[in-house]
């Protein structure tokens, strides 16, 4: 029988967060090793439980969640999202503008599939959350990366954005608060991005899944609240702020210049119908999540577990000679830099693989986030302080071998 090959659509698609290194981790686990996974923003395994009231909602509603629902999602859940848009000052959102999905991931892929033709370019931050780049490429578009500036708290570099716009640029992705950098964008930058999008007629794709995971008094501005004359697709969900990543529950809101996008919206509606609907039991948790007690605040305010872990991990990483790390103002990640004058690292994936083999811990190499250097890595600060202290201590020792 001849070799069975994957589709050539996948030739340029890359998703390293769950790539080769993970295969090695799985092999080691099968050999009986315990791996400390600081590679994925998955709160539950680290003792961050889904709020009890959400769990109760799902259990209670299981009997009424047996059938398909409307392909856009349950009315009550979408109504709750609509009310949330009012709190976030997004103007003119109606129930029909809201789509529920199996996590934000499904909705990102769906939106890109509906939107892109082969010559279309989408501006994506570098570093990025790599699903965006993968989804654009899978959908036949071109991912064009714009720089975020490490020297400026990883804020997007406006000049770089401007320099990368061509007649084929269709949309710009803004991930705020950012994964992997933890940056929370200033109002000034956000307004400038909106102005550039207006000048060039770009669709704005706002991934705001970490909008409630904020530290040190950082304020999150919903990008779609800044204009109603542009088309915005805003993405959010239960995976992070409500620690319910396994529920696979997210939403997408279409707002602004909807009247100019009836054709695109028809396309999105068609794709939404083709997958019938999102997981129904998890949709029942959305109304309670958005309207109920926001327990994430207890974790991110001073004295909160996440905040303490961020502080400890950030300090310990910065204490390693040759390592520097911007303090994240949001999300669950640190994105330290390994000074090339100090360390000799040619291949960051190999570094992460060696770390895995020697120390049985997993980080993600910076190059997996579509930056073109080998000097960064992403560390998840979800484990408890004692685990972080031990892990970063062992990482420091490991790194000393790469000193030049
Ligand atoms: N967007 C960003 C920026 C993320 O970090 C993640 C998950 O880590 C997602 C989207 C995917 O979230 P979901 O679990 O809703 O698919």
UniProtKB/TrEMBL annotation:
Recorded family membership: Belongs to the class-I pyridoxal-phosphate-dependent aminotransferase family.
EC code: 2.6.1.2
CDD domains (UniProt xref): AAT_like
GO molecular function (one): pyridoxal phosphate binding
Subunit annotation: Homodimer.
Cofactor (UniProt): pyridoxal 5'-phosphate
Keywords: Aminotransferase, Pyridoxal phosphate, Transferase
Species per Swiss-Prot/TrEMBL record: Alkalimarinus sediminis
Record carries keyword Transferase: yes
Enzyme class: transferase
Catalyzed chemical reaction(s): L-alanine + 2-oxoglutarate = pyruvate + L-glutamate
UniProt name for this protein: Glutamate-pyruvate aminotransferase AlaA
Cited InterPro entries: Ala_Aminotransferase, Aminotransferase_I/II_large, PyrdxlP-dep_Trfase, PyrdxlP-dep_Trfase_major, PyrdxlP-dep_Trfase_small
Free-text function comment from the UniProt entry: Involved in the biosynthesis of alanine. Catalyzes the transamination of pyruvate by glutamate, leading to the formation of L-alanine and 2-oxoglutarate. Is also able to catalyze the reverse reaction.
Domain Aminotransferase class I/classII large residues, every copy: 36-383
Pathway assigned in UniProt: Amino-acid biosynthesis; L-alanine biosynthesis
């Amino acid at each position: 029988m001849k070799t069975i090959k994957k589709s050539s659509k996948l030739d340029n698609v890359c998703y390293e967060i769950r790539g080769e290194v993970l295969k090695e981790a799985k092999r080691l686990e099968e050999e009986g090793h315990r791996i400390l996974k600081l590679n994925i923003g998955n709160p539950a395994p680290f003792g961050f439980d889904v709020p009890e009231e959400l769990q109760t909602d799902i259990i209670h509603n299981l009997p009424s969640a047996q059938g398909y629902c409307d392909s856009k999602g349950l009315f009550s859940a979408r109504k709750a999202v609509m009310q949330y848009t009012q709190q976030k000052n997004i103007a003119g959102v109606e129930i029909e503008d809201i789509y529920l999905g199996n996590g934000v991931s499904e909705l990102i892929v769906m939106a890109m599939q509906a939107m892109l033709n082969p010559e279309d370019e989408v501006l994506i931050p570098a570093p990025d959350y790599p699903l965006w780049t993968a989804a654009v490429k899978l959908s036949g578009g071109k991912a064009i990366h714009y720089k975020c500036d490490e020297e400026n708290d990883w804020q997007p570099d406006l000049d770089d954005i401007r320099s990368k716009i061509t007649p084929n640029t269709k949309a710009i992705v803004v991930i705020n608060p950012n994964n992997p950098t933890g940056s929370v964008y200033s109002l000034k930058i956000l307004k400038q991005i909106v102005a550039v999008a207006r000048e060039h007629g770009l669709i704005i794709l706002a991934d705001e899944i970490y909008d409630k995971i904020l530290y040190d008094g950082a304020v999150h501005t919903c990008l779609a609240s800044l204009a109603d004359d542009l088309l915005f697709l805003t993405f959010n969900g239960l995976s992070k702020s409500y620690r319910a990543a396994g529920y696979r529950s997210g939403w997408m809101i279409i707002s602004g210049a909807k009247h100019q996008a009836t054709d695109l919206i028809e396309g999105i509606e068609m794709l939404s119908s083709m997958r019938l609907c999102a997981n129904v039991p998890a949709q029942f948790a959305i109304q309670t999540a958005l309207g109920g007690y926001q327990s994430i605040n207890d974790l991110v305010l001073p004295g909160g577990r996440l905040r303490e872990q961020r502080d400890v991990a950030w300090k310990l990483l910065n204490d390693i000679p040759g390592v520097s790390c911007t303090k994240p103002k949001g999300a669950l990640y640190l994105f330290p830099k390994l000074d090339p004058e100090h360390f000799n690292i040619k291949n960051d994936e190999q570094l992460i693989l060696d770390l895995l083999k020697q120390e049985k811990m997993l980080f993600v190499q910076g190059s997996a986030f579509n930056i073109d250097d080998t000097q960064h890595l992403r560390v998840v600060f979800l484990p408890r302080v004692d685990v972080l202290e031990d892990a970063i201590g062992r990482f420091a020792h490991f790194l000393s071998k790469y000193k030049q």
